[in-house]
């Protein structure tokens, strides 16, 4: 039972480079999320999706794009990385509201450093 | 090393004592609250949740108290163990908003032997 799996776990990028973070969940959850975690600031929502083919902006969406082509996958893209995007990124998933459980399940995180 | 949480408030508790971690939330429209535990290098892990129509909820060794009047949430851990050492986050959610969570800044719990 893998739950939420993120790849890669670590990455170092140069300013201006692009990359995609992959999130996969095997719980048949409708909702998926991308958060970033910075020191002393808790987790902040970047983008989220309420179902296959849908995406929406969260609290801090600038500089990121997302896609949800398959229900189980949620991709986070950085088109031109900046040092301000150095952070730990977490993917999460949950049932839709009214489902058997409401809490979100988180992946192990991706530590990204932009130099 | 782990850089997340460098400036977090810290609660030091002796093994076997009870721990109380507090959280103030700001949105009076929030109606669902969750406590997460985050160990070093790992993602947040669900501990316990409570809905706004409740004042108290108990789990295994944990109790969450909700005071909507002063917008305060607390997590009580009974008989704290070394394995409880982690950063604890409260999170809030409003029904009908796709279960998006707003997180607090977290509290680091250190259990001393």
What's the SSE blueprint?
The complex is a heterodimer of chains A (115) and B (113).
Chain A (H helix, E strand, L loop, with lengths): L3 E4 L2 E4 L5 E7 L5 E7 L5 E7 L6 E2 L7 E3 L5 E6 L8 E8 L10 E2 L3 E5 L1
Chain B lengths: L9 E5 L4 E6 L7 E7 L6 E7 L4 E3 L3 E6 L4 E6 L8 E8 L8 E2 L3 E6 L1
Parallel strand pairs in B: 1-10
Antiparallel strand pairs in B: 2-7, 3-4, 3-8, 5-6, 6-7, 8-9, 8-10
Give an overview in words.
- The complex is a heterodimer of chains A (115) and B (113).
- By secondary structure, chain A is mostly beta strands.
- Chain A contains no helices and 11 strands.
- In chain A, strands 2, 4, 5, 6, 9, 10 and 11 form a 7-stranded mixed beta sheet that branches. Chain A has a 4-stranded antiparallel beta sheet with strand order 1-3-8-7, with no helix packed on it.
- In chain A, strand 5 and strand 6 form a beta hairpin.
- The mean pLDDT of chain A is 93.
- By secondary structure, chain B is an all-beta fold.
- Chain B has no helices and 10 strands.
- In chain B, strand 3 and strand 4 form a beta hairpin.
- The N terminus of chain B is likely disordered.
- Chain B is globular, with a radius of gyration of 14 Å.
- The chains are: A mainly beta (115), B mainly beta (113).
């Amino acid at each position: 039972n893998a739950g939420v799996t993120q790849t890669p776990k670590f990455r170092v990028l140069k300013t201006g480079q692009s990359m995609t973070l992959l999130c996969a969940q095997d719980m048949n959850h409708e909702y998926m999320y991308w958060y970033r975690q910075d020191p002393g600031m808790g987790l902040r929502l970047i983008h989220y999706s309420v179902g296959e083919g849908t995406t929406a902006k969260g609290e801090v969406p600038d500089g990121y794009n997302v896609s949800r082509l398959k229900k189980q996958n949620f991709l986070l893209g950085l088109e031109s990385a900046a040092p301000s995007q150095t952070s730990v990124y977490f993917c999460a998933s949950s049932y839709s509201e009214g489902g058997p459980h409401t809490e979100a399940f988180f992946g192990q995180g991706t530590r990204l450093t932009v130099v | 090393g782990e850089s997340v949480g460098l400036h977090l408030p810290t609660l030091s508790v002796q093994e076997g004592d009870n721990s109380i971690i507090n959280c103030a939330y700001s949105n009076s429209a929030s109606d669902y609250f969750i406590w997460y535990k985050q160990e070093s290098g790992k993602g947040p892990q669900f501990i316990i949740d409570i809905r706004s129509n409740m004042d108290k909820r108990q789990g295994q060794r944990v109790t969450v108290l909700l005071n909507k009047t002063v917008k305060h949430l607390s997590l009580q851990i009974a008989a704290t163990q070394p394995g409880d050492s982690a950063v604890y986050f409260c999170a809030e959610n409003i029904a009908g908003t796709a279960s998006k969570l707003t997180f607090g800044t977290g509290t680091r719990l250190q259990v001393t032997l």
